[in-house]
Write a structure and sequence with these properties.
The chain has 137 residues and is an alpha+beta fold. The chain contains three helices and eight strands, in the order H-H-E-E-E-E-H-E-E-E-E. It has an eight-stranded antiparallel beta sheet with strand order 1-2-3-4-8-7-6-5, covered by helices on one side. A hairpin with a 3-residue loop joins strand 2 and strand 3.
Length: 137
């Protein structure tokens, strides 16, 4: 894949993750209706969560929902961990980096490298979750 294709690929998947934020569960189902999806219902004691996994060509987007079924967090996991470097490079070229929060800033959203155990991805979340819904990026 050449640099132009990599940049386009990064841009499209990051845009998809940002579109999912602040979006109701049912809308996400229709927004990504042409993608393979899996729903995971997690419960432990009093904690109950729903996760919607959305499949892309080389990655999976996990959308997490709040108590009102609004997506408030997304994590983009890559099939090949080397791909994360292309996304990090794209984020540095495209967004302002905030060294205090260790994240890139895009209007009302933040993008942060996510690592846990042997997984790595990009974490998308709201800069100010209490703000009312605004226009999508």
């Amino acid at each position: 894949m050449n640099n132009q294709n990599i940049t386009t690929h990064c841009k499209e998947q990051i845009k998809a993750a940002l579109q999912a934020l602040r979006t109701p569960y049912k809308t996400i189902k229709s927004l990504f209706r042409f993608n393979e999806m899996t729903e995971i219902n997690y419960s432990y004691k009093t904690v109950k969560d729903t996760i919607r996994e959305i499949r892309f060509k080389n990655a999976t987007l996990n959308c997490l929902f709040d108590q009102y079924n609004i997506c408030n967090d997304c994590i983009l996991f890559f099939d090949n961990q080397i791909d994360i470097f292309h996304y990090i490079e794209y984020c540095y070229r495209t967004y302002k980096y905030n060294y205090e929060s260790h994240s890139w800033i895009n209007n009302e959203y933040r993008i942060q490298v996510y690592t846990k155990n042997d997984e790595a991805g990009l974490h998308f979340y709201l800069s100010n979750p209490d703000r009312k819904k605004s226009n999508k990026p």
